[in-house]
Amino acid sequence: MRYIFVGFCVFAAACANAPSAPTSPSSSVKDAGVSSPVAEAARATGGSELPVRGTLAASETEDGALHHLVGTGEATQLGRFTLTSDFTVDASTATATGTATWTAANGDQIFTTTVGQAVIVFPQATITETGTITGGTGRFAEASGSLLLQRSLDLLTLRSSASITGTISLGH
Fold this sequence. Notes:
Layout: H1 2-6, H2 37-43, E1 49-63, E2 66-75, E3 79-90, E4 95-103, E5 109-121, E6 124-136, E7 144-154, E8 159-169
Antiparallel strand pairs: 1-2, 1-8, 2-3, 3-4, 4-5, 5-6, 6-7, 7-8
């Protein structure tokens, strides 16, 4: 039963080659076919929807229904980033809800509220998570939008990898 709770992580993801340290926000996402985040942000005006594409690698800890996720990744608009998330798993509905903080390479942050749904085929969980952007700091201070994670979680190691897509609308 313990592994069912793990399958509902709200955030996590990545590839085996995920970076472990942030770099400047001018880094572009490899294999994503997009220009640098800084170049895209420079072309954007307040309210512009900026595309987000990337990957995330994460691991989590659990205490009953409460989970804590920490990960790193690389995405457009963020460069190399870190993610921390706290969420609660509801095993009766195979869902989880929580909050997350995405910290960009330059220290600017995005805050999200997140809901997730899992399908478990032991020892893997396939998780779809939607993070609604509620604001942030720096250039993301008045941001809105959403981030979709398609994640695969190894229930034995509590490590996961995911692809990230979505949009960020800058408020200024």
